[in-house]
Design a protein that fits this description.
With 189 residues, the protein is of the alpha/beta class. 36% of the residues lie in helices and 20% in strands. It has one domain: 3-Layer(aba) Sandwich (Rossmann fold), CATH 3.40.50.170. Strand 1, helix 2 and strand 2 form a beta-alpha-beta unit. 30% of the residues are buried.
Amino acid sequence: MAALLDAAADPAYGATVVAVGADREAAGLARAEQAGVPTFVVPFSAYSDRDEWNRALAARIAEFTPDLVVAAGFMRILGRAVLRENTVVNIHPALLPAFPGAHAVRDALDYGVRITGATAHFVDEGVDTGPVIEQVAVRVEDGDDVATLHERIKTVERRMLVDVVGRLARHGWTLNGRQVKLGDAPGTE
């Protein structure tokens, strides 16, 4: 989120951050407020079930009418109410479809892979199953543990996310089945 705020400060980037939301208090909210970006929190615990929370989150997002919702670092499954009204982009610390879920870096290390990486993808109703927009490989080094590998992945994730969001905003995209193609017109789908 901080990398996107920094990139969006340059008018040539082609995208503006219209709001930053979370499901709990987070440091990123203060960073957004410092940048003059509106923030909101929709706490999961305030709702009786996931569907009710998703409807409340969708309503808050709708107040800002975003062209894209970026869910980087957002560790909740977004449901139909959010996904029906929004195009959502997420990043994941593995080369999907390998190692989906919350423990991707640990799972990659446990499996013994020599190359893992980061994926930017559109979000669907599954867990890390949406169409892939971009991927960047990261080599697993001898002696890596979850913390060291995850830190190297985060470095490429930030660059990739800034690049992908900027390209989507400036050039649009088409989606043919699971194939994502960047286009020439903003927000085509």
